[in-house]
Write a structure and sequence with these properties.
about 1050 residues; alpha+beta; 5-stranded mixed β-sheet; 4-stranded antiparallel β-sheet; 20 helices; about 30% strand
Length: about 1050
């Protein structure tokens, strides 16, 4: 190290900045304490022993994160309403946010989505083949959707005068029945979309319609009345009235082949079984003593075989089924207000099995369905928590849990999985490098599951792949806090029931219960130090497990739990959860509620945040107060320790995030950017960045050293209550019921940007090569494709100036002056282009780009002439049908016309000024100069006797000047239009080969007529000149007509505008 150079500040060592201590933003450096930071510590320095205000030097800085992308997300699949099972597709059809979703039983994302913009779906029916769906909408229309890879609407029609309340297909899928608020039921031919039957007779709205499984009969339900209609005779063949209140659900129970019974359940706490074979008589009335919300019938024939195959003897239902000498053909399942699933014998009306509800929201059940109708081995229950639980029969055990709608997601946390076998995983590569630098072995950390807490009493353990969920059932009230142990084996949850429960993360069972708080448990934290190796992990199995808890009763408790081996004993079958009645340490942590608690990575101290706007630092596990961090103006919601530095971050309701020094507890940085309260903060694995979430629905990535926001992520539609980061994975949840799994995509995006830049560089090089090879049209096409209008302008300008220079050199060699001969003007360079052909060959996407470029050029005075030239070609060669396909062409034309008027006025003003120039020239004796030039070039050796008359001289001068103006105009148009200008050309910009000879003849005749008119005008002007008349505004000065003057002014402006200074001078001479 150079002794004359100042030392490196530890806060800027990663970017190699050399700062004087007085200039460093780090306050200890300004105080002259930087000398202590020169060398890295030989061993890890505990927080309590750290030097005053000196953060520990980062051991490994790694690469900074720049971008995160959503790897997977769960948005829910059910928000209430009808649910039906489609046997052919093997999927559940349900309503979610007024859309129809088809969801597989695995609980993954919907396999199909049916929606109609601005017209919500109210109810639906899926045909038995699973290929078609009929939906009813708020507009009163029925719509037929084809359920392919992408559902397609086939037809819509009006069915009833009012809204349709229910739909149903028959067994063949040929007919669809509707029940409406207008108290009628109709049957439609689904292939022809016409009504075949209309049934009237109910005195209330028809809420349920179902086809008979084996006959052409329709069952309709309106309030307490059930009717059976025969489609063959179009008459009502049965009216069933026995319920005292409204009927909520019906189902069919199969007795034998072709024979079925109807089961109805109502809110009068009665289930009725009806015979449909004769006169619709009541076979059995079963009192269930609860308001029935759903009924289902399950065949017992296959269940007997399953019991025999699995040798089920201990299960209650299996015992009853084996004990029955003559089992009933089916059993009835009911769900209702008692939050129980019950099984009934329809023959004698006895309850066979009663099972507690696995649902949250106090377990209230709304529907039950048989989803395996052929064998009857699975059922689904739907509760008030908007979630779907799949049961396996005949065990009646929960097989799967589908999260339909989670409402507010208040907490998420990834469950780490440690392993010491093999190379470290990518998510823990940086941590492994740091551990190797310290001479230790670090575990490979993976996270394929996470804990999710919504506004209910059942936390969920969810798989990252497919979002399958397992419930943690045990709390009596809403759960609001959670934490996962450092080794990922244990989960702690706390709720409004004032208790803390410890769960096994592997089997999702409660192993310990902690009681002692007098308020809701709002914060939990395990020690964060991970085992150093397999030996350390084995030793930790016999050591007590610590847990910190904070409550709304303003207290913080430190609990000494049994060792992990003792906790594992509670997982044995029949064992009860352990209980801890008293905490090891209890302190009053804050003057108001405790919002968050977290332990430092080295287990030396802990931090707490409260409603009193303070962050307090405590020793662990003694819970002795070490200091306070003051400065926030509103409650502090979250605190987090840095993984590499001796600092702590806090997120507050005042919209700021602050970094605090852990010795003097002074603020180091303040981060502002959220529009509302900052709800969560977390350090990234590199320790150099923060991730925050706020009430504004945004996630923000911050650079700690500069306090700059590196990126903002907008994926949620409401408050983002929670985030958690593990390695290169992040999880977020919010009030929109959306779970987002993120992955650090910095390297991928950097690679994409590098590849894109390399590709652009190659194409830029290719453009230059194409121009050098003379393939100007191909170069223009590539520049247009890359959206490079500047390169297009440069190509056209360079090509135009080269063409002008070559023409001028040829004319100088042939004539020795600037007079342009007709034959010379028709010669063009060999590498010229045909802009007409180029524009004609452009595709519609390229035309859209060209129109956009022309619109931009037309608004610029310097580029307007070039834009006008291209617009002229565009309107001339592109068919109207092709122009119609250009998106936004009408709006573009309006913008072009507004600028065209300005350019036209400017050209007219320029034209008027040229007449003043002509008058000045003639007043200064230009006529004599022209006569001398005429005498010197046309007849240099004539004697005084042979001098022609004045009128002949003026006519000859006019004819010569007319040819000169024509030559200037042709040369300008050849440069700009590639030979498509006045007079035509024979070079690279010549007419298309398929132009007819008749058009060329017509052009020649027009040129002859123009020359005759010019000669006549010349004679008239000669007479005026002899008579001494003044030259006015109508005089076509110096032999050029008004039309020639206008075209020469416009063409000359285009050439001069795009030329370099020397070329501009030459082009002005030619145009003049």
């Amino acid at each position: 190290r150079d002794p004359c150079r100042p030392p490196l500040c530890p806060w800027s060592r990663d970017i190699g900045h050399v700062l004087w201590p007085s200039h460093c933003r780090h306050s200890p450096c300004r105080r002259g304490q930087w000398a202590e930071r020169m060398a890295p510590p030989e061993e890890e320095v505990p927080i309590s022993d750290a030097k005053a205000g000196t953060p520990q030097r980062p051991r490994s800085l790694g690469n900074l994160s720049e971008a995160w992308s959503v790897e997977a997300k769960h948005e829910g699949c059910y928000t209430g309403g009808k649910v039906s099972w489609c046997e052919a597709m093997g999927a559940l059809a349900c309503l979610c946010d007024e859309e129809l979703h088809l969801v597989s039983l695995s609980g993954e994302e919907p396999v199909r989505r049916v929606q109609q913009e601005a017209d919500a779906v109210l109810t639906f029916a899926v045909d038995p083949s699973g290929q078609n769906a009929c939906t009813s909408h708020r507009s009163g229309l029925l719509r037929h959707f084809k359920l392919g890879e992408t559902p397609t609407m086939m037809r819509s029609w009006k069915a009833h005068d009012n809204v349709v309340a229910d739909l149903c297909f028959d067994a063949s899928g040929n007919f669809v029945a509707t029940g409406s608020v207008d108290r009628t039921a109709k049957v439609f031919d689904f292939s022809g979309y016409f009504c075949t039957h209309s049934f009237k007779g109910h005195s209330a709205l028809v809420s349920i319609v179902r086809f008979h499984p084996g006959k052409l009969q329709l069952v309709t339900v309106a309030d307490t009345e059930v009717r059976l209609w025969d489609l063959k005779t179009s008459t009502c063949i049965g009216v069933m009235k026995d319920h005292l209140t409204s009927i909520s659900s019906i189902t069919f129970g199969k007795i034998k082949a072709g024979s079925h019974q109807l089961v109805t359940g109502g809110r009068d706490q009665v289930v009725n079984v009806w015979q449909l074979e004769e006169k619709c008589t009541l076979a059995r009335s079963i009192p269930v003593f609860e308001n029935v919300e759903g009924v289902a019938a399950v065949s017992t024939r296959d269940l007997l075989h399953v019991c025999a195959e699995k040798n089920l003897r201990k299960e209650t239902f299996a015992k009853w089924l084996r004990a029955e000498a003559k089992p009933p053909p089916y059993v009835v399942l009911t769900v209702g207000s008692k939050s129980q699933l019950r099984v009934w014998n329809p023959v004698d009306g006895r309850c066979v099995v009663t099972l507690p509800s696995p649902h949250a929201a106090k377990g209230t059940l709304r529907q039950v369905l048989c989803v395996d109708q052929a064998r009857g081995r699975q059922i689904v229950t739907i509760g008030d928590d908007m979630n779907l639980v799949i049961w396996s029969l005949p065990e009646f055990k929960v097989a799967n849990y589908i999260m339909g709608h989670n409402e507010d997601i208040v907490h998420v946390q990834l469950i780490p999985r440690l392993s010491w076998d093999g190379p470290p995983a990518a998510a823990a590569a940086e941590e492994a490098l740091q551990a190797q630098a310290r001479g230790r072995s670090a575990p490979a950390v993976a996270a394929d599951r996470f804990v999710c807490i919504a506004n209910d009493e059942h936390p969920r353990v969810v798989d990252c792949q497919g979002f399958k969920a397992s419930l943690l059932r045990g709390h009596k009230d809403m759960v609001i806090s959670c934490d996962v142990s450092a080794d990922g084996q244990w989960i702690a949850t706390g709720g409004k029931d004032q208790s803390v429960r410890i769960w096994s993360a592997e089997v999702c069972r409660c192993v310990c219960v902690l009681a002692g708080h007098t308020g809701a448990v709002s914060a939990l934290s395990f020690p964060k130090k991970r085992p150093k190796g397999p030996k350390g992990a084995s030793a930790a199995e016999n050591q007590p497990l610590w847990l910190l808890s904070g409550s709304q009763d303003k207290t913080m408790k430190a609990w000494e739990l049994p060792a992990p081996r003792a906790l594992a004993s509670a997982l044995e079958e029949g064992a009860e959860p352990l209980s801890v009645e008293k905490a090891k340490v209890t302190v009053i942590a804050h003057a108001k509620e405790v919002n968050d608690i977290t332990v430092a990575p080295n287990n030396k101290c802990l931090a707490s945040a409260g409603q009193d706007k303070l962050v307090r630092i405590w020793s662990f596990p003694e819970a002795k107060l070490l200091g306070e961090c003051k400065g926030h103006r509103k409650p502090v919601w979250c605190v987090a320790f840095s993984p590499i530095d001796q600092v702590i971050a806090s997120a507050s309701g005042d919209g700021t995030v602050r970094i605090w020094n852990l010795k003097d507890y002074a603020p180091i940085r303040s981060f502002q950017g959220h529009a509302g309260a900052v709800l969560r903060v977390a350090f990234l694995a590199n320790g150099m960045q923060l991730m925050t979430s706020g009430a504004d629905g945004l996630l923000k990535l911050w650079h700690i050293r500069t306090a700059d926001c590196a990126a903002t992520f907008d994926e949620h539609e409401g408050k983002v209550w929670c985030i958690d980061i593990e390695g290169d994975r992040m999880l977020s949840g919010g009030s929109d019921s959306k779970l987002c799994l993120w992955r650090d995509s910095t390297s991928e995006q950097a690679k994409e940007r590098h590849d894109a830049q390399a590709e652009l560089a190659m194409k830029d090089t290719k453009i230059g090569l194409l121009v050098k090879e003379g393939k100007v049209e191909a170069a223009l096409s590539l520049a247009l494709e890359l959206d490079r209008p500047g390169q297009m302008k440069r190509i056209l300008t360079d090509y135009g100036m080269d063409a002008v220079s070559k023409q001028l050199r040829k004319q100088g060699q042939n004539s020795g002056d600037m007079v342009v001969d007709q034959e010379t003007s028709e010669e063009v360079p060999e590498d010229s282009i045909d802009l007409h052909r180029w524009v004609r060959r452009l595709s519609v996407p390229h035309l859209e780009k060209l129109v956009s470029v022309l619109e931009q050029w037309n608004s610029n005075r310097k580029m307007a002439s070039l834009a006008q030239m291209f617009l002229s070609i565009l309107l001339e060669v592109v068919p109207p049908e092709k122009l119609q396909a250009v998106e936004g062409m009408n709006a573009t034309c309006e913008g072009l016309l507004s600028y065209l008027n300005r350019h036209q006025a400017r050209v007219d003003a320029l034209l008027q000024k040229t007449f003043v120039f002509d008058l000045v020239l003639q007043s200064s004796g230009m006529g004599l100069a022209l006569m001398d030039e005429f005498n010197g070039t046309l007849a240099p050796k004539q004697s005084s006797d042979d001098i022609p008359a004045v009128g002949d001289v003026v006519g000859a001068v006019k004819e010569a000047e007319s040819k000169r103006a024509e030559g200037a105009l042709k040369m300008t148009m050849e440069v700009l239009l590639g030979g498509a200008g006045a007079g035509g050309s024979k070079g690279g910009a010549a007419k298309e080969e398929d132009d007819s000879e008749d058009e060329e003849d017509e052009e020649g005749e027009e040129e002859e007529e123009e020359e005759e008119e010019e000669e006549e005008d010349g004679e008239d002007e000669s007479d005026k000149l002899h008579s001494g008349q003044a030259v006015g505004a109508d005089r076509p000065g110096n032999g050029a007509t008004n039309g020639h003057r206008r075209r020469a002014a416009e063409g000359g402006t285009a050439a001069v505008a795009a030329a370099s200074p020397p070329a501009k001078k030459r082009a002005r001479t030619v145009a003049a």
